[in-house]
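Lab notebook: predicted structure, single chain.

Context: the supervisor wants predicted structures on file for every construct in the current expression panel, including those that have not yet been purified. This is the next one on the list. No modifications to the sequence; it matches the entry in the shared construct table.
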Amino acid sequence: MDEKTLRELLREVRAGRLSESAALERLRNLPFEDLGFAKVDHHRTLRQGFAEVVFGRGKTPEQVAGIVRSMLARIDGRHNILVTRADRRTYAAVRRLARRAKFHPLSGAILIERDRTIHGKGAIVVVSAGTSDIPVAEEALVAAQALGNRAEAIYDVGVAGLHRLLGHRDQLTSARVIICVAGMEGALPSVVAGLVAAPVIAVPTSVGYGASFGGVAALLAMLNSCASNVSVVNIDNGFGAACVASCINRI
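Prediction complete. Output recorded below exactly as produced.
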């Protein structure tokens, strides 16, 4: 239930095209629906501008399918449904409910696209330092698109060969928000941020050898960036970066 749907509902009641009882039935599961194992937040679009996203890891395929079934039934067919960190068993369960569901195997994202409306004012560009960082970058890319943004990707342009990054300078400088994904020493966001005026959301990944400490080295490097337009999300959190980028892109 978003603001547009709610206004249409109120207009239908006022015009006499919809009874009060029918309107109440549509609103019955606001602000959330209790499934026992999950409380599905049908009110989130009205509060935050986009629907709840399902974190798939740690949930059984049946639990994810139950949440998706609830969302399919209650969001009036207007909003995209995104599941992150899922596997093929979970995808199979979701696809039985929605044949249009698409699985992105690198990131584990499942997207049921029902709305292609662009809400963002500009482009979000997702940059990955290395090929090994693409799974996290893809999660950010798919999430940004699902949240109603025009999103583009530039992969494998890390500091080991900066000429690769400079070949995309026009694309970078035209972006409204940049998501920069890097593991190892995590240097790329500082370099990118020094080239552009846009906010850069840095995503450290757990890619790297032993002294990278599962992404902690990249995280600390990004937090200590001397570029003033860098902000940092948690290790491997491509979705979180996309969510913040989407909020910025709508302002």
